[in-house]
Design a protein that fits this description.
Helices cover 40% and strands 23% of the residues. By secondary structure, the chain is α/β, with parallel strands linked by helices. The two termini are 16 Å apart.
Length: 128
Amino acid sequence: MPKFKTVLLVDDNEIDNFINERIILSSKFSENVVVRNSADGALNYLREIVGQEDKIPQFIFLDLNMPVKDGFGFLEDFDKIDEKIRKSAKVIVLSSSISPEDINKASTNPFVFKYINKPLSEKYLGAI
């Protein structure tokens, strides 16, 4: 039995999304994985599910380095998303960035629950 109902993956890298989705499903961390390959795509998904509590992700795995709007841009706009979603969905930054500035900026953001370096692993999921 999966621990959580829904997880949202936000990353522009299709290979990372494929691998991360497989890890999340095979480890039974979540029943459903919603994948969006851009910050705006993820924000649009969250706007579309307002009022549909069964579709709210418990966790959002967010990449920082994406074209057009990066993970920090997502976090700025996440502040404008429906309050019920903001309170229910914990953002986990999943990034390859080892920049102390990125790590500090992400870790001190009020919406960020945890900062994890890629690649995602069952060990990280177990710790969550």
